[in-house]
């Protein structure tokens, strides 16, 4: 693929010049893990004597910081009358997801092609996710020859999304100005973080990656 072909994609996204870097969210942007996060959270809560509220709890564990997820797990277990160590519960959820990722995963349609297009154009790329470092490592291990040069995870000591800190750190780690970065995101908290950082932001809810394949 010729690097120059990416310019049509960038123009379609409203950019008049190439960004200095691309910053990617992970869950539901590059890979579909929400069903696993949800299933693992329910299994851990109910397996530890808790009560899961299906109308309230899902939105409290998807696309949130590790701290928020921990709080939701602990609250659900205490709801069942059982004492809970939220971080221990969260560790069990993460272990479940890591096992799943290491057994294999599928990228969101269009993700591989767009990752490759930016790589061919010589534009650095990094991952910025609320998921813990073991899950990022599992993703990296399963993507042979991936073009991601750095990552920020939920294990980093910065405030989580919707705070802009993860995206600011991502730009710092790849050595560019956040104002010159293009971000791909999906969650409400992630989009808020990316927009507050000063980056140019693409919501993959409104613009699915697969819809961009005709421009590369």
Rg (CA only): 18 Å
Terminal-residue CA separation: 8 Å
Q: Tell me, what's the shape?
A: elongated
How are the strands of the largest sheet arranged? 3-2-1-4-5
Description:
- 43% of the residues lie in helices and 10% in strands.
- The protein contains eight helices and five strands, in the order αβααααβαβαβαβ.
- Strands 3-2-1-4-5 form a five-stranded parallel beta sheet, sandwiched between helices.
- Strand 2, helix 6 and strand 3 (148-152) form a beta-alpha-beta unit.
- The longest helix has 17 residues, at 86-102.
Features:
elongated; 8 helices; alpha/beta; 5-stranded parallel beta sheet; 216 residues; 5 strands
Topology, please?
Layout: H1 6-12, E1 21-24, H2 34-47, H3 66-79, H4 86-102, H5 111-120, E2 125-128, H6 133-142, E3 148-152, H7 165-174, E4 181-185, H8 188-197, E5 200-203
Parallel strand pairs: 1-2, 1-4, 2-3, 4-5
Helix pairs in contact: 2-3, 2-4, 3-4, 4-6
Task: Provide a compact summary of the structure.
With 216 residues, this protein is α/β, with parallel strands linked by helices.
């Amino acid at each position: 693929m010729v690097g120059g072909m990416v310019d049509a994609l960038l123009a379609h996204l409203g950019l008049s010049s190439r960004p200095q870097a691309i910053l990617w969210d992970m869950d539901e942007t590059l890979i579909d893990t929400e069903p696993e996060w949800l299933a693992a959270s329910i299994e851990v809560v109910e397996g530890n004597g808790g009560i899961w509220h299906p109308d309230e709890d899902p939105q409290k564990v998807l696309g949130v910081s590790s701290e928020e997820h921990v709080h939701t797990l602990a609250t659900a277990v205490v709801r069942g009358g059982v004492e809970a160590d939220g971080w221990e519960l969260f560790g069990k959820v993460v272990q479940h997801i890591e096992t799943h990722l290491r057994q294999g995963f599928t990228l969101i349609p269009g993700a591989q092609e767009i990752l490759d297009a930016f790589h061919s154009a010589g534009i650095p790329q990094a991952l910025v996710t609320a998921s813990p470092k073991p899950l990022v490592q599992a993703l990296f291990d399963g993507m042979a020859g991936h073009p991601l040069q750095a990552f920020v995870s939920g294990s980093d000591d910065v405030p989580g999304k919707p705070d802009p800190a993860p995206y600011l750190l991502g730009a710092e780690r790849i050595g560019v100005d956040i104002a010159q970065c293009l971000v791909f995101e999906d969650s409400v908290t992630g989009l808020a973080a990316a927009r507050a950082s000063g980056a140019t932001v693409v919501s993959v809810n409104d613009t699915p990656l697969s819809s961009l394949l005709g421009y590369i």
